[in-house]
Amino acid sequence: MKLDTFEDLIRHQVQELYAAEKQFAQAQPMMAEATTDPDLRDALEQHVDITRGQIERLERVAQMLGVSHTGGNSATAKALVDEGVRISGIDADPAVRDAALIAAAQRIEHFEIAGYGTLRALAKRVGQNQAARLVEETLAEERGVDMMLTEMAEGWINKRAAN
Fold first, then answer.
1. pLDDT, tens digit, for every residue of 64-113?
2. Which structural domains are found in the chain, ordered by start?
3. 162: exposed, middle or buried (Cβ count in 10 Å: 0-12, 13-18, 19+)
4. What span, in angstroms and rounded, lies between the C-alpha atoms of 39 and 51?
5. Is the distance from CB of 45 to CB of 51 less than 8 angstroms?
6. How far apart are CA 88 and CA 99, in angstroms?
7. Whole-model pTM over 0.90
């Protein structure tokens, strides 16, 4: 990876997010299948479609910014995915596994929120306000998913897991 210019930094951020979203899109169905709570399963399954839209939006952002979206990788995303997959397959009390899956999903969401917030700031810095607005759409979606997962955890899933 080369980071000699601001454009290199933008390209790196786009490529890392793109690689991360692709990895997350593959892990989400497995995590959804491992849940026992129907509301949590629905939320994770719906997020698969949202993620596909975010990938398409990120491709448009890359084009607007004049950088390639492919060729990157994300060791952080891989570690987060590996954790989610591991939790999906462990022998655990179903309620406790649901709580653990929310925790894993929220770590993914927080990574994405940080990445998209950074990309939005970078796009604004180079005067790419339309790209920044598209990134803001994704950022709002990720924050919404995080809030929904928090509501589920605090509302009933953690209570069930603790009993």
1. 999 999 998 899 999 999 999 999 999 999 999 999 999 999 999 999 99
2. 6-162 (1.20.1260.10)
3. exposed
4. 18
5. no
6. 11
7. yes
